[in-house]
Write a structure and sequence with these properties.
Layout: H1 3-12, E1 14-19, H2 21-32, E2 62-68, E3 71-80, E4 85-93, H3 102-116, E5 121-124, H4 131-136, E6 140-141, E7 158-161
Parallel strand pairs: 4-5
Antiparallel strand pairs: 1-2, 2-3, 3-4, 5-7, 6-7
């Protein structure tokens, strides 16, 4: 798909919406994390660069869906993990629609929400297979890849300064 085709693709077909947990959960469960052993919750308590804080789980997430017509072809979410840090979590794009920029638009939606919640930093913990999408969006890889305490690794930590 050429640049012009991608541009037209977005003008005509893609709509990003804030969606609810009922839209995101089946996609995460069946597509992003199939066979996951641990419970899938709207948030989790992982802290930037490791560790866990159960209090983070009570933060209110925002869920984003990318739609072509009535079909949800991609999702992402975001939530505060402390006063200035916002986590992007659960980025997924249907394989038939990858390499079209949908991941970038979903990350942009999360970044907009991070700004709205007065966060100056956005971070994530992508799989190695998704790292290029985060780097394309301006995230910097700040850890080695790791497999410990993750079910679908290897993963790493990435960060992007937003400058609120």
């Amino acid at each position: 798909m050429g640049i012009f085709q991608i541009y037209i693709y977005f003008l005509v077909k893609i709509m990003i919406q804030i969606v609810n947990w009922d839209i995101v959960l089946p996609i995460w469960r069946d597509k992003l994390w199939p066979g996951r052993k641990s419970e899938i919750k709207p948030t989790n308590g992982i802290k930037f660069m490791g560790g866990f804080d159960k209090r983070i789980e009570s933060n209110i997430p925002t869920f984003f869906g990318a739609f072509i017509g009535n079909e949800c072809v991609g999702v992402n979410s975001g939530f505060k993990t402390d006063e200035n840090y916002y986590r992007s979590r659960g980025l997924y794009v249907n394989p038939d629609h990858r390499k079209t920029g949908i991941s970038q638009i979903l990350l942009y939606a999360a970044q907009g929400q991070a700004h709205a919640e007065n966060c100056g930093v956005m971070w994530s913990m992508p799989r190695e297979s998704a790292l290029s999408a985060y780097k394309r969006f301006g995230f910097e890889k700040v850890s080695a890849m790791f497999d410990e305490n993750v079910e679908f690794g290897p993963n790493c930590f990435v960060i992007k300064t937003l400058g609120v």
